[in-house]
What does this fold into?
Amino acid sequence: MQAWQVHQLGEPSEVMRLQDVERPVPADGQVLLKVLAANINFPDALMCRGHYQVRPPLPFTPGVEICGETEDGRRVLANPALPYGGFAEYAVADAAALLPAPDALDDAEAAALHIGYQTGWFGLHRRAGLEAGETLLVHAAAGGVGSAAVQLGKAAGATVIGVVGGAGKAAVARELGCDVVVDRRAEDVIAAVKEATGGRGADVIYDPVGGEAYTQSTKVVAFEGRIVVVGFAGGTIPAPALNHALVKNYSILGLHWGLYNTKNPKLIQHCHEQLTELAARGAVKPLVSERVPLAGAAAAVQRVADGVTTGRIAVLPSLADGASA
It folds into this structure.
């Protein structure tokens, strides 16, 4: 079979190589899956660089979430068991963690309903307790993680403010359903959010960016507001001033979704049931901006690493080389 492999750490476009390799052999408790679609996540780029908290042994195949097909023909969602990741024709995954792919979504959309939407659901509902009528601010609202949070916020009855970088991403955020869109490249984020909320600020802030975005969050969070820290795609990990959280009465909430796999896996199944129901009634639909063949995976991972994409890019091994959708 063909699979992308990383033999040394560095930029994805430089270190990922498409090679002919043997199909992986499942260990006890694992299953072999034919990859129907593999969704590209920012951690794939971090893993290539050696900057992710999970560091599989070299060589490894990136690709942390897929829609795959079992040997008995079931369509499932899975997080492949590294080093046999999803940017390949076949991957392996833990049998106990497989989730049924929603019938309402195609392979690429289904692959994208997993990590980003689970993270959004846990962040907004489990951690922040978002309620209908509240105001939600989402940083990087046009990206893969942010777009999921926008849709989940709207489905929960919140007013959603999306912060993006650039006019093209602003258009995507509006299409996703943001009530207010702030282009950080053209506007003062703090002033724009305060104006949009009548000076009150946002009840819940969803931050996968860190750095300056987090600093902005602390200045526009409402009384008894909640800042959900999801990641640091901006490259800078902020150092919160806890005295500021004290005097303004807001909460800083960390979210590491992967911990639920070991701490409370039943919650992941419950979340998937909620997401499947939302997808069935059209309340959420993953934004898949590109569908690329297996040969295009390295270039696509690099574009995600460079922050120039919107929504999700899906790798489809069955798609002919040179084709895209």
Q: What stands out?
A: Residues 127 and 253 are 7 Å apart (CA to CA). The first strand starts at residue 2 and ends at 6.
